[in-house]
Amino acid sequence: MAIDKQNLEDMDTILSHRYDNGADLWATPDKRLLKGAPFSTFECALYLLELGMSSDDPLMKTIADLIFSTWKEDGRFKIYPTGGIYPCQTAIAAKVLCHMEYANDSRLKVTFQHFLDTQYNDGGWRCNKFFFGHGPETEYSNPHPTLNILDAFRFSDYLNNEPVLDHAVEFLLEHWVIRKPIGPCHYGIGTLFMQVEYPFRNYNLFEYVYVLSFYQRARNDRRFQEALEVLKAKAVDGKIIVERVVPKLAKLNFCKKGEPSALATRRYNEILDNLKM
């Protein structure tokens, strides 16, 4: 399928940053794959896919090889050369590889099992690193890594067939009620969350509704429906208007702040299609 000229321009801009972090493919020489936001290895792979680059493109295959080079036999991904391996890091690696059509890879099957074996008692996933000290709110899981893990699982046979994932969905639906910052990294639902951010990078209304719409456990739930109605109210003539974008991406055509985005609208229409299932 032909790629729109403006999308090709955006691809060229993203590719122009591929050596920014000292090595190829937006990585650092020691394989820090999440460094350099918003032009990190993981983020740029997702942007290129969003803009229409095929997972079969040689560049995407090379990116996948780089990510898999950080995979450990226990299913985790070590995306930083030193320090611990945190669930959020494995979550983003698995998510990106699933978007790149590797959900059936034998290594990711180990990663999926790792997630199933390490779910926290509230249904989400969390790490034991406390940037904000210890408080009652840090006893919760981290919502955004949990959402990323559900995003990865939606490409697998576990989708709508695994009680563990229903528990994770319930955790995120309950956060819609709690609203306050929770988890060791203090993810909250407030003013910034309610702004439509695109492309998907942070914990926000649009990505929250999008990912949960794939889960039967969420679709008929009152809390999901409330979040969906908030998102629907933001659409103008059925199109999604980007309310928030990281400044370094502001000049890209596909995500201009204050303007309708055809690709964001495509994701919105996926939500509506999922509701018909």
From TrEMBL:
What keywords are annotated for this sequence in UniProt? Transferase
Read off the lineage from the record: Bacteria, Bacillati, Bacillota, Clostridia, Lachnospirales
Show the GO MF annotations. Answer: transferase activity
Name used for this protein in its record: Prenyltransferase
InterPro entries given in the database record:
Terpenoid_cyclase/PrenylTrfase (IPR008930)
